[in-house]
Amino acid sequence: MVRKAKAAPIRVLIAKPGLDGHDRGAKVVARALRDAGMEVIYAGLRQTPEEIVRAALEEDVDLVGLSILSGAHMALFPRVLRLLRTQGGAAIPVFAGGIIPDEDARRLKRLGIRAIFGPGTSLDEIVQTATKLARGPA
Amino acid sequence: MTRAPREPAAARAIVRGDRRALARAITSVENGDAAADPILRSLYARAGRARVVGLTGPLGVGKSSVLSLLVAHLRERGLSVGVVAVDPSSPFSGGSVLGDRVRFDRAPEDEGVFFRSMASRGAAGGVAVTTREVVRLLDAAGFEVVIVETVGSGQVDIAIRDIATTRVVVLVPHLGDDVQTLKAGLFEIADVFCVNKSDLPGAELAEKDLSELASFSPPRNGWRPSVVRTSAVTPAGIPELWRAIEAHEKFLDDTDGRGAMERRRLAQEIVGRARDRISADLTDRLESDPELRGLLDRVAARTLDPRSAADRLVRDLLREP
Lengths: 138, 321
What we know:
Number of helices of chain A: 5
Oligomer: heterodimer
Order of helices and strands of chain B: HHHEHEEEHEEEHEHHHH
Largest sheet of chain B: 7 strands, parallel
Strand content of chain B: 5-15%
Distance between the termini of chain B: 18 Å
Radius of gyration of chain A: 14 Å
Structural class of chain A: alpha/beta
Helix content of chain A: 40-55%
Strand order of the largest sheet of chain A: 2-1-3-4-5
Shape of chain B: globular
Shape of chain A: globular
Number of strands of chain A: 5
Order of helices and strands of chain A: EHEHEHEHEH
């Protein structure tokens, strides 16, 4: 596979799966990633896993970020991962943010969510981790 | 080279309807990767069939909402649709928030639609430098209608004029008085005016002002822009908007306006590409070629003026084999 030219900006999809309407966090993160020079495809509220995966593939993103505060993460995140795998997006790393109990976070990481950010995480940390995930192993 | 090279695998995949191959090729085109070259070359002959609709207008007038409803309408009519939605890149960070998918409402399993967001990546004019070629990929992939939504436009962001076959300028009530409609730029490129948010007061006045503009101005290549009122709330006017677009497309076919328009654009594109190459080459040689560097030295020392130096450069260039 041909590697991307260094100058190409990272493309990242930010989406909120499920039914909660709290998108402040997702917007703040989208803004921070933009300020770090990324192209952020902001898909917004109430996305189904099918919509998220479709957007990730059409937009050919390097990275997917999911934000959730409804508590439905154990139902929705694994579904996103599964669809990505079956539709040719297995290589796209997924990170997440929101209210996710530690025990669930451990299980989600085992399932393949690459990073999980809880309340109080600094934007710097999110930007750095996202950049590392998108660029892959150096 | 006289014979066309063999079609690359990626190009064959795109023609077969492989959406992942299409998505990747778009990324290559956007990034100027060498991988894009053979794909664009081999798909060129397959493009040129799609109706390319440009949606432009100031920010916040509802372009994305109109787009979403228009795509739904076209799907009901059985037409496949490719969408390119452009949003601005930050002049500070180079980053971008591409938010046009937020308004986009569609069944996720519908294979008849392909939606791609694009950042303008520093280009002025309302679209990215590579938007034309991305449209060409969607066209070659077989989408019957390709819709390009521009960056929220100012008065002179009219690059869409040379990409779309039908240009829709989306406006809203109370954008200004009728003198605004006389101003140059945006109002001059419309084939169809769309007065969106027509559920709000003032829509009739806006429609009247635009209709008067259309009827007073001399027709452009024989076409007078039509005016349609739409609303994404009620929703209303979308079938009428598509009829207006179709009427213009039919006009292009009936008058051979399409061929003439296409020829003019292709000439521009060829010259533009050649100019970019020559310009890059000259810039390079002005520093690296000893003779040309001497020219620059003399201009810097003010013993020669820039115009005369440019004349010399062009004379040299045109003499070369």
